[in-house]
Amino acid sequence: MNNNIPDSPPSNTCSSEILVRQISFRDTTTPNTSVSSNNNSTPTPKRRKVLKKFVLVQDYPSQSEDSEWTRIDSKGNNSIWSHFLEGKKDRSILKCTNCNNVYRYNRREARYNSEPAELHLRDDCTNPPDYFHGNLKDERIIKEICKKKLDKYRDLKQYIKTQSFFDIAVGLILESRLSINWVESFTAKTLWSTMALIPTENNSKPEQIFKPNKSNMSNFIRTKSKDINYFWRSEIASSAHILNEKTFTNRKTLLVSLTKRLYALDNVTFMSLVFDHWSNHKMSNYLGVLLVTYDEEEGKQIPFLVKMDRSDSHKTIDISQQLGEIFNKFDGLRTVTVGMSTDNAANMLKVPKELSRTGLLGTRFLGHVPCLLHSANIMNSTMFDMVEEDSLGFVDSELKSKLLELAAMKYQLNSDGSRNEILKQDIFTEYLLSNNSQLSSESADIGGIFSFITGDIILKKNNQLALNIKSSSVNQLLYRELCVEFGKMNGEEPLAIKTYSKTRWLSALDVVLRLRELKPVLMELNREPSLGVFFDEEDFVLMDDLTDILSPFRSLCEMLSNDTCTLKNTLPLLISYKDKIDKIFVEKSKSSNLTHRHLPVFIRFRRKMDKYYKKYVSMDICLLSSYLNIAFVDSSVFIEQFPRENTEIKKSDHVISVVSQKLTDILIPFLNISYYPIKDSDTEDMIGISSHAGRVYNAEDYSSEGQEEKNLEFEEEFDEFSIKDDLQEQIRLELEQYRLRALSLVKEYSNEVLSKSKKRWSPFDRQVQMIVGADNIFWSRHKREFPLLSLANKLFHCIPSTSIHAERLFSLAAQIFDKRKSQLSDQMFEDLCIIRSFLLRIKLGSINITDCTLNDALRLTKELNLE
Predict the structure, then answer these.
(1) Which run of H or E residues covers position 326?
(2) Cα separations in angstroms, 379 against 85, 179, 574, 578, 672
(3) Which whole-number Å values give the CA distances from 601 to 463, 477, 515, in the listed order?
């Protein structure tokens, strides 16, 4: 390899150079007037000549001694050149101190032109300095971002940019499941050449295009990931700054101060964390962490992946340490985090407690909500397990988590009916099969352990029958003939027997429904000696009863999987599901049919459901959030949970009193308002603030100039709980008005929800739709009537009721990291997952996210989608 520096820059066709200047393609047939003037300007010939000479010297030895380089002396306050070193022997050679790459650029031809160096630090440098995006440690920059958040009338078109070839290439790679090497394929080169032939101006020659290849494509992906990282850092830091602002007031101006504060909090992005483990096809474990917030305009939650880190340990302490790194990475995340949602694994349930113990969760953290879907799925599993959970003794959370993964792989069949080969190579399988295994000593064979996980009669028979049919061509032919005879065909193919998977929540219901549909075929197969008897009449009676219980679970899953379903709907949906199951249980218990010999199974199910019902009801955030659901405001559960001591007080008034007290304790840290420590003589003539009830203030009518200096005088005596009594009274008044308003409109809005859809819903489906839909309509139309309750409503909406967001993004991760991309590095895999998650919600290639806020990006994306 030739390590000598060439005397002249290599030609533009040489593969060993990378131009720093990226000229984006722009179609002038539909000119984009919203692009900033800097992007529209065309470089002069002299400037273009200078830019061409700033090229990367890839063959230059990176391990050069410091004595070969010297610092660059620049005039003025320009700090761009401070990030570069100049060669002592050849001063046309520059070295970036951030990424250690070496470039050829004759700085003396354009002494004061630092744009090539700036473009390198901004676009190409793998470790750029913070101030190119804005140093978020500088309070002035944070205040500028906050000012931008509060200005809702600024022109957002300034943040629109033209998509480059790289943006198009990233979109094609992610959406078409291509590898990064695709950009160098013949098809890709043809695409770039075709696009480059389109002139940028009328009657002008095409511009020289910087076309993607594997190397610069990887750099672009890394840079985009850093842009997203800065975007979240600025969004979180600015939201935390607004939350931490302190306000002093007195009783006369309390409502005015509340109105101004609520206006400011309306621009804060509250976050919830959703995290879970994911295993790819190589059984490598990753911890996926998502930030979930709420879009009030769309009325739905929006999740974004921020971390997909390798995690070989399922222990609580290790998960907490990885989350701690994220809290340290995003300054202010501790302040804006209001909730968490995970599955019901024991190791996951302990993580919030561990984070609270280490002080990573602040006073504004409302609580952790176990995944309601997982809870309901655990209830359903009691109807299938042959072996009680404690039959194998104590099994810790880490071992149980691995057992679940192993069970999922065991029941995964290939197209030819064979088992998945990954099971034979799994280290944990070898551990279970070894003679030294503690579990193998308690169970004679591996089948006992699988019975512990998926040891059911119906589902085990189903999977075995599917294997017997798929593994024999004779059985396949027989099965096809019977399906044709009984009309059980899907087009030209017979209806397939679905295999059960523990990790799919609706898998059991799908299996049972398919078996019931194939009943005549399966009963005829019992006569075949080669297959034997699998399902008899008693099995189908059991399937009928299981379907009665599992069918409502499908409706519950579909609603909980919707982005419009949040923490507010958790308890109402669970209670509705419980009431439905209770009715079924009563019908089964009263039945005189002797075939219902499996009644103990339903008793186990009821016990498990009662256990989870008590768990969710005992959580204050579930109770309080459900009270703000108009379909649940008069539920008897509040009277049960908030018993009154004084029987002279109405039950509804007592519930409102307790709810107002608890909501006050929740909202005080967010409002961050204190009375002045000096006595206000004017307040002696005031009786509370009841005279201001129902009055609406406009925060924009009040100026905050001069308030900051006045607040600094009393900052040491700030007491946010000094307004507690008056704030509680105001919340109580809003709750009384809200209850009357909700009871009068719930029927109207419920009918409106049902009238929007032409589907034929079952009674339980209709109830589920009304619980979520009617409440969303109410708060979208009456938000301004209840400003304090609207803040609480927004906080509760930011907390997911399930961890379904993580499961969805894991499906996308499986598309990115498939068997064809086994050489993908962990860093590139994480970057692609983060970009893919971001592209689902925001047009990354058309919006300059480093200069705008989250609300700006969402609004611009909606506008661009309408064009």
Answers:
(1) helix 316-329
(2) 65, 42, 12, 11, 42
(3) 21, 37, 20
Are 809 and 837 in contact by the 8 Å Cβ rule? The answer is: yes
Amino acid residing at 483: C
Which among 183, 51, 64, 62 has a CA at the least distance from the CA of 120? 51
272-307 burial, b for 16+ CB within 10 Å, e for fewer? bbbbbbbebeebebbbbbbbbbbbeeebebbbbbbb
Contact between 339 and 361 under an 8 Å Cβ cutoff? The reply is no
Contact 697, 222 (CB under 8 A): no
What is the dihedral angle through the alpha carbons of 339, 340, 346, 351, rounded to the nearest 10 degrees? -80
Local structure of residue 799 (DSSP, 8 states): S
Q: Between 370 and 126, whose confidence is greater? A: 370
Cβ pair 295, 858 in contact under 8 A: yes
d(CA 143, CA 159): 19
Q: Which residues contact 833 (CB under 8 A, 6 or more apart)?
A: 288, 305, 308, 809, 812, 813, 816
Task: Give tens-digit pLDDT for 594-647.
Answer: 455 556 667 777 788 888 888 889 999 999 999 999 999 999 999 999 988 888
Place of tokens 């700054």: 241
256 vs 246: CA distance, rounded Å: 15
* Amino acid 106: pLDDT: 67
H or E element in which residue 248 lies = strand 247-249
CA distance 261 to 727: 13
**Residue 581 identity (one-letter amino acid):** I
Amino acid identity for residue 748 in this structure = E
Residue 148 near residue 853 (C-beta atoms within 8 A): yes
Question: With contact defined as beta carbons under 8 Å apart, do 12 and 54 qualify?
Answer: no
Dist. CA 767–CA 754, nearest whole Å: 10
86 SS3 class: strand
Q: Return the ∠ at Cα 344 (arms to 338 and 350), rounded to 5°.
A: 65
Partners of 413 in the beta sheet? 419
Element (H, E) at 794: helix 787-797
Q: Which of 414, 376, 812, 302 has the alpha carbon at shortest distance from 554?
A: 376
Which tens digit of pLDDT belongs to each residue from 687-723?
Answer: 333 333 333 334 444 344 444 545 555 566 788 888 9
3-class SS of residue 58? coil
Helices 473-486 and 457-470, packing angle to 10 deg:
110
Count Cβ atoms below 10 Å from residue 361 Cβ, excluding itself: 23
CA 839 to chain centre: 13
Q: 565-580 as b/e, with b when 16 or more CB fall inside 10 Å?
A: bbbbbbbbbbbbbbeb
Beta strand ranges found along 486-543 (DSSP E): 489-490, 493-494
Helix-, strand-, coil-residue percentages of the chain, each rounded to 5: 55, 10, 35
- Sheet with 285-295, edge to edge strand ranges: 300-310, 285-295, 271-279, 337-342, 367-370
Q: Are 717 and 281 in contact (CB under 8 A)?
A: no
| Amino acid letter, residue 43 | P
Cβ atoms of 351 and 343 closer than 8 Å? no
- Give the chain's mean pLDDT: 76
Distance CA 91, CA 70 (A): 9
Per-residue pLDDT tens for 531-574?
A: 777 888 878 887 887 888 788 888 888 888 889 999 999 899 99
Instruction: For the chain, give every domain's residue range.
Output: 1-19+54-132, 377-384+456-611, 619-677+714-797
Over residues 789-825, the pLDDT tens digits come to: 999 999 999 999 888 898 888 888 888 887 666 678 8
∠ CA 53-55-60 to the nearest 5 degrees? 125
Phi, psi of 371 (to 5 degrees): -60, 120
**Token pair for 127:** 């470790």
Cα distances (angstroms) measured from residue 62 to each of 3, 58, 68, 95, 237? 10, 9, 12, 10, 37
